[in-house]
Amino acid sequence: MRPTLLAVIAATFLVLSGAGEQAATILKTERFDRDPGWDNSKNRCEASNPPTVKQDFGWSPGRIGGTVWKSTTPAWYGMPLSRPLSFKDAFSASGKIAVTRDSFGKGVAYLGFFNHERQGWRPWSSLAMRLVDKGDKAFIYVDYMTGQWAAGAAEMELAIPTDGSEHTWWMTYDPNATRAPWTDTRLHSYLTTGRQTGEEILTKAKQVEPELTVAALEQRLKAALEKGLVSFLARHRKQFWLLKQEKEDLKGAVIVQIDGGQEFRSYLTAEMRDQPVELDRFGIFNMQLYHGTETFHVSDLAVNGRKIDLSKDPGWKGQGNRTQFVERDFARQNFGYSADSNYAGGEKGEIGGQFHNVEPVYPLHGYYADEIGHLTLDDPIRFSGKISFIEGSTDAGMFFGFFRAEDEKAKLPPNSQIPSSGWPQANTLGIVVDGPARVGWYFMPVCTAAERKLTVNRTGTIFLPTREHRIFDFVYDPQANKGVGRITVTLDGQPPIIVDLKSEQRKDGATFDRFGLTSFRRGGKFSRLYFDDLTYTTRRPADAPPVRHEQKITTVLYPR
Thinking of the domain 5-46+330-556, which architecture would CATH place it in? Predict the structure, then answer.
């Protein structure tokens, strides 16, 4: 009888250690047509006291607006546009806005142009003002994202009081705008593409301009901010400045003005401007994150130069904007075995779900994985299967492949004490789904040794939440690359991604005792992915009884 292809592949992975009777490596296939009973740690989290959300916004005589809750459940109210707009079109809106501080607060809501079929964070196919409640003021930022999940934002020195008073606003998008060059060359020389506080910039500047004052520097920084030359970020109770889109090809600008004051500009890259975009609504939509309310109303509204009559119901469409429900979602993990879904393709039954990036000290990080025995970088290792990327939020990612449970469960200090203390962790070999906002996500091979020395393809293959069924294959060959080791990854038969290990990394070595899915211990948002029909290397005797675990649910109080 001729051997099966799987048996032939498995035979090539037989490895015996130099000492004793250690079991050989074999390839195991899991179809997930039943619960595999994998090991799990805080991968399913629930709140014991979930709050009730009451979305209540839309039209009322003379205005639109109301109370908008942050929630992963979409909610929007918008005017259909006569045709879908892209970033190659000019468009604008203006009116009066009043923000009211309510009892809950801490909210965020959007006002602008968007696609009604899909939002998310950041909102897919959109360009809108983000209203951010910060106590006695509501700050106004700008967010934008293409139909290929390339995103950008601008945090500007624009704010209005949350006392219910009316303020005029104006927002326009010019598809042909280009950025003027720097004229304040001295200020440009003090700045970098990394974050610096005003104090750090002033220290540099005084070496050239000893008479420069704090007030004068702030005035110059604000002037550069208004022109879209720098970024301003308020983080960790500090204010940072950095060069914005330095040396990038820019085309198209969004311009915002409040109460007839200075115009603030933010530019798109030429590549982003030309990507597919379908803006089919103007109106209000919620931020699809967790908990907080923004109460505001808009009147005297004009869209693309046309005055909107709000004295009577304009008949706009909405979804979830007048509803009440129990909010079960928060910054939690919710992934593992799913008996009734087939997002990844094939028969029902798969693994996956929601993965949430969390800070290193946050306890709700988790994994879901099979116990595979003991593997090292001296073993040939392989895994393959089906994957579907369902939803992706900017600043979110996850890992799947081989790792060590001990590292996943370790307690870690804050990033402020040890930079990058959460990810990458030691002892990993697999795939990271992650990437910068300007691109979206990459499908990236990764290997970290015991001392966390990292080898990773920083670009990989662009991988977006299109909900398609994808096929992947990951091969680690310890003999390739002159015996140092090589990773070869393919996705849907595309040209392979090849990553060579470094000799120092191979010398340090790595050990793995789990194969499966893990969340990131690095602050960010959430993503949803599913996997099926996985084949992967293990080192367990053929006659070893299966190790089965019950799924544990972690219950916590709903976070404040």
Answer: Sandwich (2.60)
- Specify the amino acid at residue 103: S
Residues of 19-52 as b/e, b for ≥16 C-beta within 10 angstroms? Answer: eeeebbbbbbebebeebbebbbbbbbbebeeeee
222-234 confidence digits (pLDDT tens): 999 999 999 988 8
* 3-class secondary structure, 485: coil
Question: Max Cα separation, the chain?
Answer: 89
Q: What is the pLDDT of residues 3-55, one digit of tens each?
A: 443 433 444 444 433 334 567 899 999 999 999 999 999 999 999 999 999 99
pLDDT at 421 exceeding the cut of 70: no
Dihedral angle of Cα 141, 145, 149, 151, to the nearest 10 degrees: -40
Q: What distances in angstroms separate CA 3 from CA 11, 174, 473, 494, one per listed residue?
A: 10, 65, 22, 29
Delimit the domains of the chain by residue range.
Answer: 5-46+330-556, 52-315
CA distance 424 to 328: 30
CA 227 → CA 90, 179, 202, 502, distances in Å?
A: 19, 8, 21, 44
DSSP track, 143-202: EEE-TT--EEEEEEEEEEESEEEEEEEEEEEETT--PPPPS-HHHHHH--SS-EEHHHHH
In angstroms and rounded to an integer, the radius of gyration of the C-alpha atoms of the chain is 26
Q: Which residues contact 245 (CB under 8 A, 6 or more apart)?
A: 228, 267, 269
Q: HSE (CB half, 13 Å, CA atoms) of 15?
A: 19
Fold of 52-315: Jelly Rolls (2.60.120)
| Shared fold status for 5-46+330-556 and 52-315 | yes
Q: What gap in Å lies between CA 362 and CA 551, rounded to an integer?
A: 21
Amino acid letter, residue 322: R
Please report which helix (H) or strand (E) contains residue 356, including its range.
strand 350-356
